[in-house]
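Next comes the chain:
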Amino acid sequence: MTESEFNKLADETLARIEQSLDDSDTDIDYEMKGGVLELSFENGSKIIVNRQTATREIWVAAKSGGYHFLWKDGGWHDTRDGGELFAALGRYASEQAGVPVSF
């Protein structure tokens, strides 16, 4: 994958996360700064989602840990357990928000 292909996919992914938050009834604030998406929860915790261009990965830092997602078979998959990014992010956000969250 070229750098421009990666950046396009990463931009689309971050935009989808933002749109999901806009469309939801959850009280999760977010801010995008230079390709880094910061989700803020009522309890003061955060989730950080950002692109790692050098490795062509999306990285997620959540209360439960740090995760790396690589584009494979048409989706972003965790480099450790193969889990899909949006499902995993929903779990992390649900844990931190205390209510179900989906992306």
